[in-house]
Design goal:
About 25% of the residues lie in helices and about 25% in strands. It is an alpha+beta fold. The strands form two sheets. Strands 1, 2, 3, 4, 9, 10, 11 and 12 form an eight-stranded antiparallel β-sheet that branches. A hairpin with a 5-residue loop joins strand 11 and strand 12 (about 220).
Length: about 240
């Protein structure tokens, strides 16, 4: 092989290597986008926290991942932090701009947190058939007559009640009673009893259960219910 032919062969090899790399990169990106889209559609979805109602568990601008198998395949449990569509009248109008351009594309395939104004994040306190009331002599919420100890709630200095207002409700089957962890700064079930849904959240409106706080990284944590919070509640419901 002549020197010219060898040079031409090397150039073809380099071009082939570059084209092969670009082709493989394109395939990887397409697969990644497809997997992300499928995850967002069927399994996991990302949301951001717009308000202080779930402090200190969740803070403004935190990002959470939500398991969308709840409640369709996995039952909602007391203590779950759930994301649900506004049943009507829960949310104050916000002036945020809808996502545009590349951000909108990333949201649609699940690579960016959903920043729309139609979702609410709260903690489940009562499920279908539960009687939820406030408060006992120590200021605790009661579920089926059992006082629950809630280490996650935030109360202003000097306040000892888990709720500033009294309530006594029985949750309809297929619905939820939800409250924010920041009890005195949360427009939750208590404050929506004058709405058509009487403060209850239909399970069909639940997008899923938040299972991890994934951003910012220095606050990364798994989300769940402190052990023992609802001990005895099921047994009391059966009696």
């Amino acid at each position: 092989m002549s020197e010219a032919e060898a040079t031409t062969s090397q150039q073809r090899t380099r071009r082939g290597g570059i084209l092969g790399f670009l082709r493989d990169l394109l395939v990887i990106l397409v697969v990644a986008f497809l997997v992300s889209f499928l995850l967002k559609t069927f399994l996991v979805r990302s949301f951001f926290i717009p308000s202080e109602s779930m402090e200190n568990t969740l803070q403004i601008d935190d990002r959470i991942l939500v398991n969308q198998l709840v409640p369709d395949l996995i039952d909602v449990q007391r203590g779950d932090i759930v994301v649900f569509k506004d049943p009507g009248g829960w949310l104050y109008p916000r002036g945020s701009e809808p996502p545009r351009g590349f951000e909108r594309v990333l949201q649609s395939i699940g690579l960016a947190a959903d920043t729309s104004n139609e979702y609410v994040v709260k903690r489940v306190i009562g499920v279908g058939g539960d009687r939820v009331e406030c408060c006992d002599a120590q200021g605790r919420v009661m579920v089926n007559g059992v006082p629950i100890d809630e280490p996650y709630i935030v109360q202003p200095a000097g306040e000892e009640r888990a709720s500033a207002i009294d309530f006594d409700v029985t949750v309809p089957e297929g619905s939820l009673w939800v409250m924010g962890d920041n009890r005195y700064q949360s427009k939750d079930s208590r404050y929506n009893q004058d709405q058509p849904g009487k403060g209850f959240v239909p399970e069909e409106e639940v997008v899923g259960r938040a299972f991890v706080l994934n951003w910012p990284l220095n606050r990364f944590t798994w989300l769940g219910t402190p052990e023992g919070t609802f001990t005895g509640v099921d047994a009391a419901k059966e009696n």
